[in-house]
């Protein structure tokens, strides 16, 4: 009797282990274990702004408009004309290879679109995401003007912002980049 | 007890008192033989203790707290706190002591109002609720998580006399459980050119990082549980990205969106910050993988050795490239090295605990550990590690940590 029970148990275990293998291989082939509960969305508004201009909203802002927004909402932390010690936004162009480099928007940042993206998502600190698109374009223009990158007459929008060339745009070596395998199309390291 | 080898000469594994493992077993056996005492009379032996609790807390006699809470020019909510490595053992960081680093405080998110949206270069943009993600197949893995700025104080010109945790405690080991990302990417249907995934957090900093697709398909998950319980708010509740082996910053907490696209976004946190300036003025970007590293947690900075004799040197090692192959320990400032015992599971991208016995004779000593991973990467000395980047660049520092034991038993951080 005991022997028979053991035999039965063994048979059941064999069945379980075989079905586990089967499920595992289905999983590897096509993720068929996933319940696929994602709801399709058609109206998601991206906040990711990339150097090609994707994600930039409509709007326009001038250096002069940016100066007034900056002085009201940014200068308390970043100082008049972006010169607050320890939290500065300007200066240092050409200093990166010195023993004491000065890392700022002007000297270091490779893309002007990053400035728009960051101001829109994270600034002013404590009131993030409260500036209008026009205000963000304007503050971006003002900070770039303080760094001597755009003129005092500059007006930035989705087209002109993308065209801004930053002084350190070629200053980075990208690690961790990979290319899809040309033949198989399989993505690999 | 064996009489085979009581000769100290044969027990030495390296200079200044490093012993073979068997020596420690003998020493502790001796200690036990002389150490038996009747239990002291104490209240807790006769009076019932506290009742049950809904959520436990540590003994009031265990002094456990995060250290070195660092503020930030933006204000206290944009800082960090570190895990007290010297108070812990093993390879799991308790959730209440996990280091914290955030850019605009810890949001208090209602999971019923939080969604993860997967969009961009996909066939169908999809939105996942917290409830729906809980229904997906999950995986559990032990991984380390290290802030890329961990140990940055050891890049300073003078050695700071601080604890192991204050110096090196932006590192944790935990079991992370969540939904492998490939299920979600497969469901949305990636377009052919979608080489990068941009992850975005729901906190007030809208923290954003671009991650190469291969890393997202190679073990990355939407983590929902940490050491068995739902994530703590400081670790991303209700959900965070977890990318094994990489700088902690890309495992975006409070994960709210994943955008597939051909190129990186070049967000502020991957251009202005979390890049590594080289001496020639160029900088490395997307230096995501964390380097091979180790630190001795006992004896360690600010501890006091109050007797001569045998101690267990213990610490932890990790590498973002692979599992750990070997940890070597020196008690003479790097002149000689002995191989430590790896005394825990040793998985890729996870913490490994190492131990080795040491006979302290009262001589001034410098204790060091040096990790080597399965790929052959060797943890460098401080001098070599500092050569890698421009002075003042402090991310990805993995130099050997040196603890000096002076003749009075004080242990402190030193540069050698």
In short, what is this structure?
By secondary structure, chain A is mainly alpha-helical.
Uncertain residue ranges of chain B = 1-10, 28-35
Estimate percent helicity of chain A: 25-40%
The general outline of chain A is: globular
Number of strands of chain B: 26
Assembly state (oligomeric): heterodimer
Using the coordinates above, name the CATH class of the largest domain in chain A: Mainly Alpha
What is the gyration radius of chain A calculated from CA atoms? Answer: 27 Å
Explained architecture:
The complex is a heterodimer of chains A (189) and B (416). Chain A has 189 residues and is mostly helical. Chain A has 2 domains: 1-33; 61-163, Orthogonal Bundle (Cytochrome Bc1 Complex, Chain D, domain 2). In chain A, 40% of the residues lie in helices and 5% in strands. Chain A contains 6 helices and 4 strands. Chain A has helices spanning 2-30, 63-73, 75-78, 112-122, 133-146, 158-163, and strands spanning 39-40, 61-62, 155-156, 172-174. Chain A has a two-stranded antiparallel sheet. Chain A is globular, with a radius of gyration of 27 Å. Chain A starts with a helix and ends in a 15-residue tail after the last strand. The model of chain A is unreliable at 1-29 and 178-189 (pLDDT under 50). Chain B is mainly beta. Chain B has 2 domains: 100-282, Oxidoreductase, molybdopterin-binding domain (Sulfite Oxidase, Chain A, domain 2); 293-414, Immunoglobulin-like, CATH 2.60.40. Chain B has 7 helices and 26 strands. In chain B, the strands form 7 sheets. In chain B, strands 7-6-15-10-11 form a 5-stranded mixed β-sheet. In chain B, strands 8, 9, 12, 13 and 14 form a 5-stranded antiparallel β-sheet that branches. A 5-stranded antiparallel β-sheet of chain B has the order 21-20-24-25-26, with no helix packed on it. In chain B, strand 16 and strand 17 (283-285) form a beta hairpin. Chain B is globular. The relative contact order of chain B is 0.16. Chains A and B meet through strand 1, helix 4 and strand 4 of A and strand 6, strand 7, helix 5, helix 6 and strand 15 of B.
């Amino acid at each position: 009797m005991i022997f028979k029970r053991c035999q039965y148990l063994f048979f059941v275990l064999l069945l379980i282990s075989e079905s586990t293998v089967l499920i595992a291989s289905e999983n590897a082939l096509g993720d068929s274990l996933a319940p696929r509960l994602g709801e399709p969305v058609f109206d998601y508004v991206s906040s990711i702004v990339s150097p090609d201009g994707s994600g930039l909203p409509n709007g326009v802002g001038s250096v002069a408009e940016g100066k007034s927004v900056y002085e009201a909402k940014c200068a308390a932390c970043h100082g008049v004309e972006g010169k607050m010690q320890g939290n500065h936004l300007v200066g240092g162009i050409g200093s990166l290879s010195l023993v004491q480099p000065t890392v700022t928007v002007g000297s270091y940042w490779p893309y002007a679109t990053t400035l728009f993206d960051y101001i829109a998502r994270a600034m002013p600190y404590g009131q993030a995401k409260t500036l209008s698109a026009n205000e963000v374009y304007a503050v971006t223009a003002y900070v770039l003007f303080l760094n001597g990158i755009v003129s005092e007459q500059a007006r930035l929008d989705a087209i002109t912002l993308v065209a801004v060339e930053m002084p350190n745009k070629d200053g980075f070596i990208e690690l961790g980049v990979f290319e899809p395998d040309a033949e198989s199309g399989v993505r690999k390291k | 007890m064996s009489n085979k080898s009581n000769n100290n000469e044969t027990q030495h594994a390296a200079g200044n008192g490093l012993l073979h493992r068997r020596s420690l077993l003998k020493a502790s056996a001796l200690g036990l033989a002389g150490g038996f005492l009747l239990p002291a009379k104490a209240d807790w032996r006769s009076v019932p203790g506290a009742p049950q609790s809904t959520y436990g807390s540590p003994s009031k006699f265990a002094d456990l707290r995060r250290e070195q809470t660092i503020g930030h020019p933006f204000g206290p909510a944009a800082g960090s706190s570190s895990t007290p490595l010297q108070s812990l053992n093993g390879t799991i960081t308790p959730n209440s002591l996990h280091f914290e680093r955030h850019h605009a405080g810890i949001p208090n998110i209602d999971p019923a109002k939080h969604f993860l949206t997967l969009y961009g270069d996909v066939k169908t943009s999809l939105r996942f609720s917290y409830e729906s993600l809980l229904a997906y197949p999950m995986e559990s893995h032990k991984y380390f998580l290290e802030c890329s700025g961990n140990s940055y104080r050891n890049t300073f010109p003078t050695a700071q006399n601080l604890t192991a945790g204050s110096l090196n405690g932006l590192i944790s080991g935990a079991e992370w459980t969540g939904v492998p990302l490939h299920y979600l990417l497969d469901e949305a249907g990636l377009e052919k050119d979608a080489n990068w995934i941009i992850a975005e957090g729901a906190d007030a900093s809208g923290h954003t990082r671009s991650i190469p697709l291969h890393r997202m398909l190679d073990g990355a998950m939407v983590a929902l549980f940490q050491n068995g319980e739902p994530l703590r708010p400081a670790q991303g509740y209700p959900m965070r990205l977890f990318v094994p082996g990489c700088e902690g910053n890309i495992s975006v907490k409070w994960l709210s969106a994943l955008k597939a696209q051909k190129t990186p976004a070049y967000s502020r946190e991957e251009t202005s910050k979390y890049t590594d300036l080289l001496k020639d003025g160029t900088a490395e970007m997307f230096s995501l993988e964390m380097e091979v590293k180790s630190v001795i947690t006992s004896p360690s900075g600010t501890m006091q050795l109050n007797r001569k004799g045998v101690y267990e040197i213990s610490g932890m090692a990790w590498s973002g490239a692979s599992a750990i192959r070997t940890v070597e320990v020196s008690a003479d400032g790097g002149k000689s090295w002995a191989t430590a015992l790896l005394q825990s599971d040793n998985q890729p991208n996870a913490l490994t605990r190492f131990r080795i016995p040491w006979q302290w004779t009262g001589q001034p000593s410098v204790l060091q550990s040096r990790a080597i991973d399965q790929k052959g990467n060797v943890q460098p000395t401080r001098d070599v590690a500092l050569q890698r980047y421009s002075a003042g660049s402090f991310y990805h520092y993995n130099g050997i940590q040196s603890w000096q034991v002076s003749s009075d038993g004080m242990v402190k951080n030193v540069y050698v």
